[in-house]
Design brief:
Elements (H helix, E strand, L loop, with lengths): L1 E3 L2 E3 L5 H5 L7 H11 L12 H14 L3 H17 L3 H7 L14 H4 L11
Antiparallel strand pairs: 1-2
Helix pairs in contact: 4-5
Keywords: Ribonucleoprotein, Ribosomal protein, RNA-binding, rRNA-binding, tRNA-binding
Protein name: Small ribosomal subunit protein uS13
Subunit structure: Part of the 30S ribosomal subunit. Forms a loose heterodimer with protein S19. Forms two bridges to the 50S subunit in the 70S ribosome.
Length: 122
Amino acid sequence: MARIAGVDIHNNKKVEVGLTGIYGVGRETAKTILGVIGVDLSKRIGDLSEQDISAIRKYIEENLTVEGDLRKEISLNVKRLMEISCYRGQRHKMHLPCRGQKTRSNARTRKGLAGKRGIKKK
């Protein structure tokens, strides 16, 4: 197992897919990382040399915000929105969707099950 940015990545996964296990790294970001370093996309994590793994680790540390730092940054942004009481901040406070979705019939994942937050069960 390779450990990159505090995350263990299984040896049998392809490098491109394995890097997406890191919070803040998606498929496109993984492709750009591997392109800059010069690692073949079809390789598996177990086939990488220690130099390749250290190069990936170094690139991520220097150029990307990932894992705990990114989670902290996002939560601070949401708290800031709630403190200044803008529309999006008010929606976050009320546990409602912030991006214009309908709430009359949907939004169960955000609002919770019936019976919570003032929604009466029939």
